[in-house]
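=== RUN LOG ===
request id: a7f3
mode: sequence -> structure
chains: 1
length: 302
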Amino acid sequence: MTAQSTLPTATFRQPGPFATVWAALRPIVRKPMGFVGLVGTIAFILVAFLGPVIIPQPVTNTNMMRQGPSIEAPLGTTNDGKSILILVLRGGRDILSIALLTGGMTTFVGVALGSLAAYLGGWFDRIVNTAANFLLGIPTLVLLTVLATVIRLDNPLPLSFLLASLNWPSLMRTVRSQVLSLRERDYIEAAVALDLGTRHIIINEILPNMASYIIINLIFSITNAIYSLNFLIFLGLVPVDVKNPNWGWIISTANTNQAIYSDNTRWWVLAPVLAIAFLQWFLITLARSIEDAFNPRLRSGG
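=== RESULT ===
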């Protein structure tokens, strides 16, 4: 009988989804500011979307009109006795929903047009750049205000589309410059030589090398949308469900009632303003941390 030797077979386990997510987040959260930005952003998103579900609507209480902070209402009350704290905790959902949708649209259009313009060149590049330069030459808030007066913005989809249609040019131009740089790399030239096709080269070769850059610009697109949306709501150009008011409507109503001039109602203005400010700070901190973690030129050891 001939003895047969058997060699052990090596097996490789694919990392699970949690391991994959943690591998992407680890360079960000290992630094204090990255951790703060990520946790703060997640906390705001959870409060914004779970607040209207968990927290009941504030009730009108004529006995507590324009009262200062108390145990029942830690941030005071409005003209009709509603708790300012509850209004703010419930007021972020619409703002964040539209901002996330706008950010997604802006990023998709900017990345798609910038990549194609840089890679294809020629007449397509000239047309896209002409359109971008035209929009960049017009003050965004002024154009947005004019368009909002003639377009009905009572639906999140057209509102998001309007905001995205005015914000894509700057992202397109920066993506275009990045792709122009990447297309000179050896692996891109090899893919072209192998005739892998435009779609494969852009999706599989170019965009993965811009993933962190795209995520950063997605975050900044969301922050720009939050500013623009609250600006339109403050001017009364976006219809708001008064039963479920958002931060912009709360600020506008508080300003109309001159709440900032009264010690009892000062938080009526300050609370939603601070909520927007902290959300923006967390988002920008997260974006800067991602940039620092994945950009070798900015990475500071450790």
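=== NOTES ===
Residues 31-58+75-91+244-295 form one domain.
The CA atoms of residues 168 and 233 lie 22 Å apart.
=== END ===
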